Amino acid sequence: MHTPSIDLRLLSGFRILGRELHFARAASLLNMAQPTLTQQIRRLERQLGFELFTRSSRRVELTPAGRVLLAGAEEGLDRIEAGISSARAVAHRPATLRVAVEWEVEEPWLAGVRAFAAERGSPRVTVTRGHGPDVVGELREGRADAAIHWLPPDISGLPSVRIGGVEALIVMADDHPLAAYPAVTHGQVREHTFVLWERSDGPEWWDYFAGLLSGGDPGSFRAIGVSSVDSAQRPMLAAIPGTDRLTMLTPGFWAVADTRGLVCRPFTEPVVIPMYWSWPTGGERPEAQALRAFLAQQPPVTG
């Protein structure tokens, strides 16, 4: 059945009259003349095709149909007014751009995000931190507008572009046999056990790095887990001195870590861990595109 298009102003007048059941009082509350309100109610009744009020010289009453419509108008108009109020509040405040950033993403990129926020003023940028699968989860569950992470697109399952990379460094005790070399090969590191986080705490990330550090031969990769992925660096480094084990850091973390008794070596053929920018499958917000373009102009993070 065809539903007529109704002017919300007519419904607003009807709601007030339905509450007051008195034309003069309702017209006063609406800031209009009584004849104008009478004309609006008649117009609404014509559009609907049924009467809303019974009128006599002494009283005004709602018809059964009028009572049903009043209940619906009360709820519907309240929702519309609340929606308008919320929309107005959003329209008159700076938009918030929510960016989820993996723990292992280094400071220069975070500095780029802060510089973008300071330069533009709007949108306001909020940053949450987590490990790879967590920041990807923030996107999937609608709690972030973009993410910066190491997990590649075939693992994250989200639209992504590569925005940079950082060289992987192999960390060992300063008396480790490989410390005598200025750089190491995949064949050399495959002969030793790595210290990483527990695989159960981040299997996608663990498997990805197993392939990366083994030179594409994850079956030969040997590792023990000593910590959760979110607090990995300190326990991993602490498990190295006095052993022939190895671990991995990026240059940024090496620069700030407690590295007493340790040395780091690059691979003879640099292993670069690519960094990705991802966004929800529903599309990338214009503000997120602007931040991505801004970061692309920053100096790349390398070893």
Q: What is the number of E strands?
A: 12
> The CATH topology of the largest domain is what?
D-Maltodextrin-Binding Protein, domain 2
Low-confidence stretches: none
Q: What is the helix fraction of residues, given as a range? A: 40-55%
CATH class of the largest domain: Alpha Beta
Structural class: alpha/beta
The helix count comes to 12
- Write down the overall geometry: rod-shaped
**CATH architectural name of the largest domain:** 3-Layer(aba) Sandwich
How would a textbook summarize the main sheet? 5 strands, mixed
The number of distinct structural domains comes to 3
Radius of gyration: 32 Å
Taken in chain order, the helices and strands follow as: HHHEEHEHEHEHEEHEHEHEHEEH
Distance between the termini: 69 Å
Instruction: Report the portion of residues in β strands.
Output: 15-25%
Order of strands in the sheet with most strands: 4-3-5-12-6
- By CATH, the superfamily of the largest domain comes out as Periplasmic binding protein-like II
Please tell me the overall pLDDT: 86
